[in-house]
């Protein structure tokens, strides 16, 4: 099925490119596409084939996403063919192959196809994970830990006494190692979509498929502290009110005593007349 899709895409791409080139060259020059030098025509065919191979590779590796790992060679071949077209110029011919393939074509099939390949590669952020066509060290670290976790889970699945609890217990350390390693570098804009998709699928399977749970002690401590503060607030509120009420009662008691003394003094001296 994959081969049929590939040949169909190649055939359609070739027909589209050929018809587009023919129509535009006929309007801009009396020279026909049939008189293109053999090198120009073969390079166009080669570019169409490499673009088709890259598209097929991307589609077949879209779930789970392994585009950067599996399609690096196809991408490099498209890039190489396009660079060859850009450098192509035959001084002995009346036709400028480079202009015919990239500029004269109103649909700009070659240019649009090349931009499609670049856009797909950039969306996958493959440059972040690759050194040439192989993974860099940080990406290898993620993939190695992911393979260790998969191997542990596979052993338990193949075991006749398989249970989710055994996976959660025996494979927990591999899961923690993987997620901790990823979390250590994820904010550095380090990983491509191959890695991000691997982590998302792993975390989803761990919690939903295998029903496992890894406690986040930092989050639990934060929750405990917040709960303690919330429970303590009513006690603090009543205690502060009690202190304020005690201070007010002491002030009132002090004022009453002074008022009584002043009243007594005024009463004791009211029967005397002071003569100057």
Question: Strands of the biggest beta sheet: in what spatial order?
Answer: 1-2
Question: For the report, how would you describe the main beta sheet?
Answer: 2 strands, antiparallel
Structural class: mainly alpha
Percentage of residues in strands: under 5%
In angstroms, what is the radius of gyration? 40 Å
The coarse silhouette is elongated
Helix percent band = over 70%
The topology string of helices and strands comes to: HHHHHHEEHHHHH
Q: For this entry, what is the oligomeric state of its chains?
A: single chain
First-to-last CA distance:
130 Å
Mean pLDDT: 78
Uncertain stretches of 5 or more adjacent residues: 1-9, 14-35, 272-276
**Tally of DSSP β-strands:** 2
> Helical element count?
11
Structure, explained:
Helix content is 74%, strand content 1%. Helix 2 packs parallel to helix 6 and helix 9 runs antiparallel to helix 10. The longest helix has 52 residues. It is mainly α. The N terminus and C terminus are likely disordered. Strands 1-2 form a two-stranded antiparallel sheet.
Strand and helix map with partners:
Layout: H1 2-28, H2 38-60, H3 67-70, H4 72-87, H5 97-104, H6 109-123, E1 130-131, E2 134-135, H7 137-157, H8 164-170, H9 172-185, H10 193-209, H11 217-268
Antiparallel strand pairs: 1-2
């Amino acid at each position: 099925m994959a081969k049929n899709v590939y040949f169909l895409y190649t055939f359609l791409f070739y027909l589209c490119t050929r018809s587009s080139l023919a129509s535009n060259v006929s309007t801009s020059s009396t020279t026909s596409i049939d008189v293109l030098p053999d090198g120009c025509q073969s390079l166009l065919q080669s570019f169409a084939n490499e673009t088709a191979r890259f598209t097929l590779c991307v589609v077949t590796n879209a779930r789970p996403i392994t585009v950067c790992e599996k399609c690096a060679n196809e991408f490099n071949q498209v890039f190489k063919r396009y660079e060859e077209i850009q450098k192509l110029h035959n001084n002995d011919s009346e036709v400028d192959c480079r202009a015919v393939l990239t500029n004269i074509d109103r649909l700009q099939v070659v240019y649009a196809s090349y931009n499609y390949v670049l856009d797909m590669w950039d969306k996958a952020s493959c440059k972040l994970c690759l050194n040439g066509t192989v993974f860099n060290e940080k990406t290898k670290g993620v993939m190695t830990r992911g393979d260790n976790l998969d191997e542990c889970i596979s052993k338990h699945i193949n075991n006749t006494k398989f249970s989710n609890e055994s996976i959660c217990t025996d494979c927990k350390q591999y899961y923690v190692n993987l997620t901790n390693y990823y979390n250590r570098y994820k904010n550095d804009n380090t990983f491509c979509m191959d890695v991000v998709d691997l982590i998302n699928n792993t975390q989803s399977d761990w919690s939903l498929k295998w029903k496992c749970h890894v406690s986040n002690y930092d989050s639990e401590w934060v929750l405990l502290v917040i709960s303690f503060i919330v429970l303590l607030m009513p006690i603090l509120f009543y205690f502060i009110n009690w202190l304020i009420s005690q201070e007010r009662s002491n002030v009132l008691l002090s004022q009453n005593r002074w008022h009584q003394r002043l009243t007594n003094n005024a009463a004791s001296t009211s029967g005397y007349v002071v003569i100057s």
